[in-house]
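Before a colleague's protein record goes any further, I have to sign it off. Would you go through it and say whether the fold makes sense for this chain? Take the sequence as given and treat only the tokens as open to question. The record follows directly below this note.
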Amino acid sequence: MAALKTKKPTSKKPSIASRIKPVSALKTNLVMLVYGRSGTGKTHFASTFPKPALYLDINERGTETVASIPGIDVLRCEEWEDFWGSDDTEGAYWYLAEGTKYKTVVIDQVTNLQDMAMREVRRQGRKTEEDQFTQRNWGQLGGLLKTAISAYRELSDRYNIVFLAHERVFDGGGEEEANNAIAPTIGARVIPSVGSFLDGAVDAIGSTFIRERTTKEGVKKVRHVDYCMRTGPHASYATKVRRPVTSGPIPDVIVNPTYPKIMDLISGKSEPKPLVRSKKNG
């Protein structure tokens, strides 16, 4: 094994001391994972992030809900090379890595991205849809997705990055058991090894859901529908908000979540009130 060099380098690169900065001086964009069932407001929540924004539509076709909002562009990614690139295709990642006008990039959705990556693993291995997906292939799939997630996460120097995903309940059997999946049991619908990696790569995780409640207005009972996001620690749902330890507890739920509300929560400037639950809905 080669001996460690003990002589001080004479390189003209910036000194280590010049690169040391106070934590408060590090200005970074937000990297967030939002998951939930279809129709619970994931795509609309992402539309509240700074614009111009680029939606990478991974065979989701759900951008109709934000079609009337100015400042949003869409790139439909139908194959892995559209999302990442190839020898013949620039791909969304390399286009974004060069620097663009956008302030926010939305990956809609990671669940469909996994299916796309599976097709890419089959293509590289010259396998058909009928061929069995081996343990080695699962490992290749995980590596492909982790590399892509990590690379897109590093683009946060330039953009806010929002990963959207469908919800999945892990039942402890099948592929989840093989990968030693543990609580939380509800999270993004991807294989557990990728889900754990994605959870650790983001600054915040929100779980969207719809809650109904009723109020009494005179003699009438009025039904209300709230679009909500779980943010506080939960025994079953994957949630996370990185913020100063002196800011106090994180609220369980945000009603009508938006980017400004999440940023205020992260900075500790405000603490949204938890959702008031009706007697009917508990």
Observations:
- The longest helix spans residues 135-154.
